[in-house]
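Now for one specimen:
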Amino acid sequence: MSPKVHKVKGMVTYVNAGPGFWAIVDDSGGKWRPKRMSKNLKQEGLRGAFELRELEEDVSIFMWGSPVKILSFVSEE
């Protein structure tokens, strides 16, 4: 089965839990935790349209959101 791809609109936020991490909260309240996020997206409050692919994860210290890879981003600005 291939991983799910989601197209969402939302906002980048920094979650200050444990060591802290960057995340996306979509307009429906969905929580997404990118495995890697480029430096240009690490801006609190950055809004846009994201295309995200779900990732399988064995173990994580973060008990927040679904692990994803960002496939594309288009800013709302």
